[in-house]
Fold each of these.
Amino acid sequence: MAESTTKQGGWRTNKWCRAAIPALLLHCSIGTVYCWSVFSQEIADYIQYEKSAVEWAFSFAIFFLGMSAAFLGNVVEKDIHKSSLIATICFSVGMALTGVFIRYGGTHPHSPVALIGIYVSYGFIMGVGLGTGYLSPVKTLMLWFKDNKGLATGLAVAGFGLAKAIASPIMTRILASSENGVWKMFIILACVYAVMMFCGHLILAKPADWHEPAAGEKKPGIMETLKTKPITNYIGIWLMFYINITCGLAIISQEKAIVKCLGLVAYAGLISSISSIFNAGGRLGFSAWADFQKDRNTIYKIIFSLSIIFTALVAFTSGIKNGEGKVVLIALVLILIFVVNAGYGGGFSNVPTLLSDHYGMGSISAIHGITLSAWAFAGLSGNQLATFIVNHTGEFITKNINGADVKLNPAGYQNVLYVTGALYILALVLCIVLVKPSNTKGEKKA
């Protein structure tokens, strides 16, 4: 009996069991939102709408992810069990309802009810699940891994990035399994992720020695906490986070088309998988590296510098426009894609630890939640910015790929780089000028 009690106490006080594993269960589930490109065309074809109309569901999902994180940050701060349960219910129910409305659209072609239902289910309901699910384990991880906060948060957020590489082949198999694979896929995965997230919800817990203020205990407000440093410091963090996501989405959203311009259609799946690995690796690698930096903001300077260098190289050599059949140019474009993916992921994983260094752990979930509003607005602007540039600059050409005519705009994709390059330079300036070095790694702050 004594041995059994000891073993039970062991897992209950183990940081991997109470923080890392539940974080991975939650983030590997909600991270499948980035699999959107795998099935978006299938949804459009099934409900007989233009793909551009269906695409808004993904934009709404990212928008409500950021906004729910901003408005529900205090809920996460007070009760991670309530917030992780909200995440589980909203994400799995939203996914299941998306499947229901897709099926309805299949039997009622061009139905606005089906399209709006997908917007509400995938965009709003799932979006709320995404925001609360993303936030719930982050503070808990930093409390358990006090000496390696970057490694801990990077591990969980890497799960969010790696989810695409794990889920995409499974989704592709389900889609190919039957004529009605697209709506069935959502129903099946809703059940799978409900179980995974509920298990994560059950075992997620803060360490016993962490004291949250009691109901009547006075706690500094968010603005009071932010004003402990010049407000321009926080504005700088928010803006550079927003720019990094906007640029990342602008390039990642055009990744498949760029690969086609390079004549690498046969390797598109492999390149997508490698990109996902770089995305996840950047989340883990950059955040773990930051643990050894005196100032975590150094990591952002590295991310933006690398992005500027390789964007400039591809821009000046017209790598996308002239790269087909030229090994050196192809290599430069692929390196840019991988660097952007790594920097995009690393930007996410370093935000909570950077904020904790500057403002302490007391209100980190609420402050992190507000900062994720940058993700919400970037989710609307990143893809749309690239689409606007491609549709209004350059010239579309028709290429025969695997027996089918495909319209591509190599010059348009090239022009996206001029804008993202300028934005990366602006982000680096903000990073250096506005975000001042923190005096501590945050453990001593309330």
Amino acid sequence: MRKMAWLAAAAAAVALGCTSPGPSDKAERLSKLPPIPSPPDNPTTDDKVALGAKLWVDPRLSGSGQMACTACHVREKGWTDGQVLSRRDNGDMNTRHTPTMYNVGYSQSFYWDGRAPTLEAQVLAAWRAQISADPAKATERIANVPAYVAEFQKVFGTAPTQDAIVKALAAYLRTKVSGLSPWDRHEMGQPNAVSADARAGFDLFMGKARCAMCHTPPVYSDFNFHNIGLEAGKAKPDLGRQVVSKRPEDTSAFKTPTLRSVAISGPYFHDGSLATLEEAVRYMASGGNADPNKSPLLVDTRLTDAEVRQLVAFLRSLTSDEPYTAPRVP
């Protein structure tokens, strides 16, 4: 099944007419995952990624000039922010939990409801909404920095533009690969890379616990949308994917998140409603709350306490440990 998922990802990239980053991409050399595709109009290069990395931590992109993209996506928290709901640059509160940026490049739609069709579209939307920017004004600030002007000229052959900023940020995000974890080392044959509990947990994951039906290896997501019962009984339920698709069967369905590095990216689910990984596992293993639109894939698997512990041990073994040092902005 793991090999089939790898082939499916590669086939999807070909079907989309995408190209893959070159062999110089350090993140992918350190990953067991297949290459992340990039669109023909925004091929990934080392120089573009380096530029995007600086923009990612530069608060001058925001409306206030005080909030960088990385404020809501922190490496130590699995490229999330550890908050149930985060606050935007303008002070407004978000209504959904900050998703991880890990392995985002494998997805074909973005946000919890999939409303953005490309990573570039998601970056532009978040630039406007989350960090409350007028992209034209923010671009002007970037264009007033001589070092940026030289770097944009090198990468894009132009002065800083809104489109180029979006493309550089998207290229950088495509390098956010959580793909070399203790579990990957175990699968590569490294002795004692994981515990006996983690190995037993993987067997449960692929079998009795039914996790792999939606969290498909090797990315551990199917990137599809499922209702898992979390909106059941709420006075004003979040309609999720249904707002985008207009299909009743998508009511309160949300995109399956990757489980890579999930142990450091809590709290969990689109509403951030469960604080710990064990709570999230127990909720899913129980079959979730009753909801007429709940996915039929979600059933009570009757896991024992010992099996929950083993499943959590496996999920913890999916945490990658690649180094990260924030770049200096010019």
